[in-house]
Amino acid sequence: MFTTPVVRALRQRYPTARLTYLVEPAAEPIVAASPHLSQVLTIPYSRGWRRVRDDLAFALRLRRARFDLVIDLHGGPRSAWLSWASGAAVRVGYDVPGRSWMYTRVVPRPRAIRPRHAVENQWDLLAAVDPALARPPDRSQDRVEMPADPASRASADRKLGALGLSPDDRLTVLHVSAGNPFRRWPEASFAALAADLARRAGDCWVLVSSGPSDRLAAHRVLDDARTRAGAAARRILDGEGYSLAELRAVLDRASLFVGGDSGPLHIAATSDVPIVGIYGSTLPSRSAPWRPTSLPTVAIDAGDLPCRPCDQRVCTPGDFRCLSGIPAEQVRQAAEHLLEAGR
Question: What pLDDT is stored for residue 311 in this prediction?
Fold first, then answer.
């Protein structure tokens, strides 16, 4: 998601260029409907000998395409090798130990965690492509982008209608999972928040979403929230089965999004929905929604802790206090404020 401002800037600078985006399957929906790309290539996510086979086949495909320029927006070992193997005359990437030799133009990237947004880090690569692109990115002009395609919008509307929502109902999307435990707010806190929001009024609904690997946790949140909500339990909905493209469409009709620092938070940033972001080990200055500051956006975290931010490998205190220290009441107040402001 954080690379989409770079894609738009390249298209604006080179309106007739053939722009190809190489992506793994899980993230393909983010760029599939981009109006700026000429082509999206999806490389299999494989392991072991299959990874070697797939990468060799893709390297040959890239070399045959005779690209003039490759920009490695990821910086990992696989993307660096594919950049080199493409045979492009110009290859731009970060100065990462052991991999910088694979590029023809190298951009410094400090190894220490710094309070600088990831979009700005991605943007650094543009200056190495063309000095005319060296300006700082602007949150309004260069916001993150994921268009909602008509088919996904129609599908999402049908699903919500089948659950009993009308176009006039107010919907909060509550995303309760994240890629690792360093970004997961406690389940009980999510359940309390969902119940409180559903009880606000008869037109308030809550859609609980999660990633495929967190379905059991989402079911626990749903069960707990419905028990707490009493008569309002029917308005707490299970968001299982929505694709990323459908989730993007849902956010265009939602009144609020609440979630941790994970992919759906940044999908929400591509819409104008009000957002409450919950940050544990990560910093809002690095990964808050990159969109116009005029759009309602609240970041909530545990404040200054000696262990925050961290590398998200080992919780030194052992209790994930950066997340457990954020009370449900604080998030509820922020959520209700945005809901009231949007009436």
Answer: 85
Residues of the chain with pLDDT under 50: none
Cα dihedral sign, 14-18-23-29 = positive
Same domain membership, residue 176 and residue 323 = yes
The identity of residue 195, as a single letter, is: A
Q: Which domain holds residue 177?
A: 151-341
pTM: 0.92
CATH number at residue 180: 3.40.50.2000
Q: How many domains does the chain have?
A: 2
Instruction: Specify the pLDDT at position 114.
Output: 73
Note the pLDDT of residue 109.
Answer: 85
- 122 is written with which tokens? 């991605």
Residue 161: per-residue pLDDT:
92
Query: What spatial distance separates the first Cα and last Cα of the chain, rounded to whole Å?
Result: 29
Whole-number Å distance between alpha carbons of 142 and 147: 14
Concatenated DSSP letters of 164-229: T--TTSEEEEEE---SSGGG---HHHHHHHHHHHHTS-TTEEEEEE--GGGHHHHHHHHHHHHHHH
